[in-house]
Amino acid sequence: MSTSLGSARPLPTVSQVGPVDPAEIEAFHARHPAHATDDRRRWQVIVALEIATILVVWEILISVLKVVRPAFMPPPSAIIMALGELLARPTFPNHLMFSVGNLIVGVLLAAIVGITLGLAVGWSRFLDLTVSPIIWTIYSVPKVAFAPLVILALGLGPPSKVFLVFLLGVFPICLNTIEGVRTVDPSLVRAARVFGTRGARLLRTIILPATLPFILVGIRRAVALGFIGAMLGEFIGGNTGVGYLLKRAAQEFRMDEALAIVVVMIVIANLGLVITTLVQRRVAPWAR
Amino acid sequence: MTSIGATGPRLDTVRDEPPTTMEGGPTGSWWERLDRRTTAVVLAIEAALILLVWQVAIGVLQLVNPVFLPPPSRILEGFGTLAARDDILQHLGTSLWVWILGFTLAVVVGVVLGVLTGASIPVERLSSPVLWTIYATPWLAYRPLSVVWFGFGLAPIVFLVFIASLFPVLLNTAAGVRSVDPSLLQASRVFGISRLRTYRSILLPSALPFVIVGMRQSAVMATISLIVAEMMGSSVGLGALVGILTSRYQTGQAFALVVIAVLWTVIIGQLLKAIGQRVAPWQTDARLS
């Protein structure tokens, strides 16, 4: 993966971090197809069995043996039932669309501003010298501390949430874009100029393709961070969104519902990552 | 992609310069020939200018409501007001204590789990469902849950700091262990070194630079999660104070608190960087430093 920012490096998920170089595994599998499928299938079965065991033990410990009060840690069956109830609730789509909508709008705004600024700063030495330090400084500020202020300034509705998403998402996109432009091979740019390519065409044919993988890494981080921003906004102010539902459920000690909402959140957050990965495969298949 | 058009003018200005600008040749403009010290001077002047413009635009011209973006003078005043508070040490002391507790827990657990998952494929595969579930959950979602699990004291805040800063250390440590030179492991096997000693003398030192990088990422996460956790449902601590002051429109003080949080994180980051250079001086990769 074309990561660039030491501290902003997107962390691979546990399952992604292969023990060996994936290419090596693939090469091995190509050489020994039977062994590969056998090995992979065996591990799939083992992990599936493990998950099933965990769920069964969890269920027995709480439903039958009552080791912990279900109010603290409900059994899987209760969470699944609560999830069904939650999804069937007529107001739920409203909350879901509120959160997802704010996230999408905020990330789009962050992408527009972050990519524009990143291309300009990455391309121009002068802007790099003068603007980069400012961006890095703001990036290092824990912007979550401004959440109450944002609510105060923009109110309880969607604008404050969208702005929080934007605020948390714009810097990873911008910094990754800067880093991406810097990696553009100068000889390519020179060659393009020899053939009379400049301006918008140079940007489209040379700079953007080389920068795109970096931009997409930035956007993926922006989705993850932006989701935190959206949830934070809903926790602190307002009465709509899945974050608000979670806060309410936990306050009223409805732990089964709270965990069901967490399941929904996991789906939203990871769906965002999956979508950006799919987009990356489509628009920048050369990036790994 | 509306962004393309917007960058047009910038590219046009660059277009007229000689191609050597991409490499920063001596024919470039004055800003491409600056040495480090001049660069620092230029940046200092720039910073002063920004502060001045900020002060004038908001403090004098009031282009934005000073409550929402207090001018530098207000923030400076905020430091004074904060310092005069009786309970300021209690707030900052509590935050510091919770930060250290949560961060230390995360580093200890993260390094142990990271070494185990990095060194053994079965452990990695078997632990992945549980670890993935914890990691895939947005860390902020643990805040309401932690209140149910741990009550209203400092414990839920420590828990949130721990869970938010665990994975940078864990994943970096695992990656570091996996990057260990296989010939070293073979050599250790040839010499019949015990398993424990292999971990201590080969895996851990190789992974150390990665652990430090993970710790630096974790330190940032610890600060962020600490502020959020205290802001939501706590009455003591830096984050709680930010929330209280903001709701009273005393944003100059709130910004001053944010500056304190930034300084703390930067100091820890520099400290870890220095430690990293000391324990792993061969690690010169700029991306890691």
Q: If classified by CATH, what would the architecture of one domain in chain A be?
A: Orthogonal Bundle
Structural class of chain B: mainly alpha
> How many beta strands in the DSSP annotation of chain B?
0
CATH topology title of one domain in chain A: MetI-like fold
Level-2 CATH architecture of the largest domain in chain B: Orthogonal Bundle
The CATH topology label of the largest domain in chain B is MetI-like fold
What portion of residues of chain B belong to β-strands? under 5%
Based on secondary structure, the structural category of chain A is mainly alpha
What is the rounded distance between the termini of chain A? 5 Å
Shape of chain A: flat
- Helix fraction of chain B, binned, reads over 70%
Which chain pair has the greatest contact?
Answer: A-B, 81 and 91 residues
What do we call the CATH homologous superfamily of the largest domain in chain B? MetI-like
The CATH homologous superfamily of one domain in chain A is called: MetI-like
Please summarize the sheet with the most strands of chain B: none
Number of domains as seen in the coordinates of chain B? 2
Low-confidence stretches of chain B: 1-26, 284-289
* CATH top level class name of one domain in chain A: Mainly Alpha
Work out the helicity level of chain A: over 70%
